[in-house]
């Protein structure tokens, strides 16, 4: 994915330098800002393909810049990944509610960040719907819209498939029922939030067979909603 531009917004030079070196090795072009004023100028002048935005910045928070970008029609679709030391679920949800596409908490491995950048750019380019995603023996084939567990096909309804595809494309992140409705059903479709719970139950049931049980991949996050996670349940 050469020649795509990443705007790094962080007030710590050491972090920007580390990110720039890792991203340039991965063939990205990097531009840098240390505050929201510089960042907004670079967004307008350079039109980056994606923004890595630190939460805490001098002269205003990254959340303030995020709101500004999402309010403007010319930058509303610009992908943004929040870089944050804030690990509380409500802080993460606040960033996602404002319009962040993803987040990663410090400290993080550059390889994980680069993988997320590439995945987000694929989604922005429309490639997510056709991708093939695998977690252990669970395979989702976006092109054929089929699910397999240990090479055995899984019977699953279209809404459950769409939910699983969204979850597998956005692992380890908690989403509210409202956010899932927007992403999976569509922001302009009126569906009650409790509908999400019904389809989650159906999805978990579909992920259970006599030989395999991946229902625990869909985790309930108390007070928030749901997340897809392969951590701590013996799945790699």
Gyration radius over CA: 19 Å
What's the CATH class label of the largest domain?
Alpha Beta
Strands of the biggest beta sheet: in what spatial order? 2-1-3-4-5
As for the number of domains, it is 2
User: Which stretches are low in confidence, meaning pLDDT under 50 for 5 or more residues running?
Assistant: none
The second-level CATH architecture of the largest domain is 3-Layer(aba) Sandwich
Count of DSSP-assigned helices: 8
Structure report:
Residues 130-230 form the OmpR/PhoB-type domain. GO terms for molecular function: phosphorelay response regulator activity; transcription cis-regulatory region binding. Residues 5-121 form the Response regulatory domain. It is found in: Cytoplasm. The chain is of the alpha/beta class and 236 residues long. The protein folds into two domains: 5-124, Response regulator (Rossmann fold, 3-Layer(aba) Sandwich), CATH 3.40.50; 129-228, Orthogonal Bundle (Arc Repressor Mutant, subunit A). Helices cover 39% and strands 21% of the residues. Helix 3 links the parallel strand 3 and strand 4. The model has no long low-confidence stretch (mean pLDDT 85).
Question: Care to give the gist of this entry?
Answer:
This protein is an alpha/beta fold and 236 residues long.
Q: What are the main properties of this structure?
A:
single chain, 236 residues, 8 helices, Rossmann fold, Arc Repressor Mutant, subunit A, 5-stranded parallel beta sheet, 2 domains, alpha/beta, 4-stranded antiparallel beta sheet
Note the topology:
Elements: E1 5-9, H1 13-25, E2 29-33, H2 36-46, E3 50-54, H3 62-71, E4 80-84, H4 89-98, E5 102-105, H5 110-124, E6 132-135, E7 138-141, E8 146-149, E9 152-154, H6 158-169, E10 175-176, H7 177-185, H8 194-206, E11 218-221, E12 225-228
Parallel strand pairs: 1-2, 1-3, 3-4, 4-5
Antiparallel strand pairs: 6-7, 7-8, 8-9, 10-12, 11-12
Helix pairs in contact: 6-7, 6-8
């Amino acid at each position: 994915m050469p020649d795509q531009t990443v705007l790094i917004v962080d007030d710590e030079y050491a972090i920007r330098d580390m990110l720039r070196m890792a991203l340039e090795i991965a063939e990205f072009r990097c531009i840098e800002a240390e505050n929201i004023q510089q960042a907004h100028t670079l967004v307008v002048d350079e039109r980056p393909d994606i923004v890595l935005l630190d939460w805490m910045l001098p002269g205003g928070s990254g959340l303030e810049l995020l709101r500004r970008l999402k309010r403007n029609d010319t930058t509303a679709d610009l992908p943004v990944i929040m870089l944050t030391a804030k690990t509380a679920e409500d802080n993460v949800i606040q960033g996602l509610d404002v319009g962040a596409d993803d987040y990663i908490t410090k400290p993080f491995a550059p390889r994980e960040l680069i993988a997320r950048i590439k995945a987000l750019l694929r989604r922005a380019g429309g490639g997510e719907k056709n991708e093939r995603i695998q977690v252990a023996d669970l395979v989702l084939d976006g092109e054929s819209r089929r699910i397999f567990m240990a090479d055995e096909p899984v019977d699953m309804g279209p809404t459950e498939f769409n939910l699983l595809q969204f979850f597998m494309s956005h692992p380890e992140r908690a989403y509210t029922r409202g956010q899932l409705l927007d992403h999976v059903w569509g922001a302009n479709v009126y569906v009650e939030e409790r509908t999400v719970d019904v389809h989650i139950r159906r999805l978990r049931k579909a992920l259970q067979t006599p030989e395999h049980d991946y229902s625990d991949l869909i985790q309930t996050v108390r007070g928030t909603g749901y997340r897809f996670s392969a951590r701590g349940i013996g799945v790699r």
